């Protein structure tokens, strides 16, 4: 990406994404994860941008409402996801990384492959074309995948919040989403950390603590 007007820092920041099916437990852990990163990075004068997809910019948040609430053609849905992503990359992610700050995003492109590709059956080739167009060679440095049986995730979500368009999907849909996530993790050449999200919240937090050393976080 070349749009950033920010002078690149000597040491670029890192880009970490949280992924998994709805109800797997991402939101439960992301804030504490970001807080620990912030504490570790304070000593080197860096900070952390916590963001999410769909969303992350005013336009992206407007698109989020549409894609999470409105029925639409599956290709329209994928195009809106990537349109929001382009805005997110240009306005938020790339400038932060160029400043040497870190970015933690609750979902990114792996979710589009998993949901629109695996779940909805949209051509993975088309998604790959859009991925290259929108993000060039940019990929997360690390992706933390919360892997969970869709039946357990559905039980956790029941009554926890009003389900959006995706959260109302069938168990079969989430099984396909999960399989595509796992296939991508397998093929990623080590970009993913796969967490068994059926564990207790405490056990998962303990496993996440091991990720900080792997990221080279000062003090870990
Ligand atoms: P996500 O962000 O992946 O959709 P959430 O973090 O919102 O999932 O978690 C969904 C629900 O499951 C919440 O009610 C949360 O309190 C609960 N939950 C999260 N992690 C666990 C866990 N390890 N064990 C049991 N319940 C959990």
From TrEMBL:
One of its GO terms (molecular function) is dTMP kinase activity. Residues 18-204 form the Thymidylate kinase-like domain. PANTHER family: THYMIDYLATE KINASE, UMP-CMP KINASE 2, MITOCHONDRIAL. Signal peptide: none annotated. Keywords: ATP-binding, Kinase, Nucleotide biosynthesis, Nucleotide-binding, Transferase. SUPFAM superfamilies: P-loop containing nucleoside triphosphate hydrolases. One of its GO terms (cellular component) is cytosol. Its EC number is 2.7.4.9. It comes from the Bacteria. It catalyses: dTMP + ATP = dTDP + ADP. Phosphorylation of dTMP to form dTDP in both de novo and salvage pathways of dTTP synthesis. It comes from Pandoraea apista. Gene3D superfamilies: P-loop containing nucleotide triphosphate hydrolases. This is Thymidylate kinase. The gene is tmk. One of its GO terms (biological process) is dTTP biosynthetic process. InterPro entries: P-loop_NTPase, Thymidylate_kin-like_dom, Thymidylate_kinase. ATP binds at residues 20-27. HAMAP family: Thymidylate_kinase (MF_00165). Belongs to the thymidylate kinase family.
């Amino acid at each position: 990406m070349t749009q950033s007007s920010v002078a690149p820092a000597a040491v670029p920041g890192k880009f970490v994404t949280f992924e998994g099916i709805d109800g797997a437990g991402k939101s439960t852990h992301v804030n504490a994860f970001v807080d620990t990163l912030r504490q570790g990075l304070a000593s080197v004068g860096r900070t952390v941008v916590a963001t999410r997809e769909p969303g992350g910019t005013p336009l992206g948040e407007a698109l989020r409402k549409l894609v999470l609430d409105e029925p639409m053609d599956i290709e329209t849905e994928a195009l809106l996801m990537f349109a929001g992503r382009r805005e997110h990359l240009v306005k938020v992610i790339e400038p932060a990384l160029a400043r040497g700050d870190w970015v933690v995003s609750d979902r990114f492109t792996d979710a589009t492959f998993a949901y629109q590709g695996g779940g909805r059956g949209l051509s993975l080739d088309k998604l790959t074309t859009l991925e290259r167009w929108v993000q060039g060679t940019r990929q997360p440095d690390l992706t933390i995948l919360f892997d969970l049986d869709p039946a357990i995730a559905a039980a956790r979500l029941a009554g926890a919040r009003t389900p959006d368009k995706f959260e109302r999907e069938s168990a079969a849909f989430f099984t396909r989403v999960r399989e595509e996530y796992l296939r991508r993790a397998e093929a990623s050449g080590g970009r993913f950390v796969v967490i068994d999200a059926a564990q207790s919240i405490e056990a998962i937090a303990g496993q996440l603590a091991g990720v900080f050393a792997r990221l080279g976080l000062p003090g870990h």
